[in-house]
Amino acid sequence: MSQVYRTLKIRIPWRLVEERPDVLDLAVRMHLAVEEYAKKLLKELTGQEELRLTAEELDRLLTPDRRELAVKIIDEVFPKYGLKRYFIDQAKFFWRDTAFWRAIPLNAQLRVENERDTSKAVFVDLESGVVRVRKLGIPPFAVKLKKGNVAWIRERLEEGARLKLAFLGVERRRGKEPTYGKLYVALVFAREATPVEPRALVVVDVNRLDHGVVVGLLVDGKIVKRKRLPDERAVKKLWKLHRKIGRLDARAARETDLTRRSFLESRARYLKSKRYRKIRAIVEQIASEIVKLAREHQAAIVVDTMDYETYIARKQSGESGDKKHLYDGLGQLRRRLKDLAQWYGLPYLEERLYSTVCPRCGAKMKREKKRIMCCPSCGFSDTRDNIPLLWAKRRYWEILQKIKQPVFSSVPAPLTLLTS
Ligand SMILES: [Zn+2]
User: What average pLDDT does the segment 390-396 reach?
Assistant: First the structure.
């Protein structure tokens, strides 16, 4: 059994942010204090500045004997940002979580029916569909829950999760001078997951979002199901949007009239954020279909990833250019699959499965037609998308064995905070 987490991010509406500058101010002060705390703590522990650690590395570093040091830093840093007793106590008590999540955990209560209000800082009332945030040294405020939020919370409850804690967060916008914008309340749900003993494999070939993600179900070393996600319609729509943006950008670049140019640019910006949302929605849908399939067959999820260098090279190359978001989408998909797999106790493995090496004889294959690969050595040929699946089939028992020595992590990855 291990503790697993999922986070729901509830956006604080712009109107509230505008009407209540004190909320933004508090969120920014909390953010800055935590950043300084984490930076100082890690510097003391490693002697290094600005290091990027994985959740596992952080977990190994933050051993119980570091608590005293953490407490000392909190005492020193937090008052500088005007953070009073409650925040200091919370950060000290959750000194590890504060460093992991890069946020101060607030205590929280979830009211499902009519339980007594226990005066926690974040009070989530499912019946009235409202999140109240209070006791933070500023006047209280409330955010309405969307229908989708309520449904999401109810699903987690049905899975046996409970609300563990909450955060008040702010997104930093990149730029020369960092600015702070969107505010949110994040609710962290936790449950005990029993790792699933895998009886099958769901193999995911992650190539490019618009080519579709190929998913295969393998049972007893045989491919029993194969499908391409998302459906063609979604891909077509995405491409249409993509071309529209390309045309707008080109027109804006040629336009000499400033007013018209800025009109075209703002239209393009609008469509780009629409595209971003669309990609997120597609990723969401693909991930949930894959996880559903894996849960139905008690399967481990095996993701074939192109190696990191190829990924970065392609992302930065002219070939991808403006298509770079399609690769971003794939990064999102991997994180999403990993998070969901962990939540349901499904084993997850990233494994390099070849798409250009012959699964029959191991020779380097050649591209014959658009998506057809052919082996010059033994004559085997198939569509490019099928080849990683055939490799998974060939290595089925080996991969299954590999998965059975689990590297199950119970550490909350800081990144998961960004997804819901
Ligand atoms: Zn061959």
Answer: 93
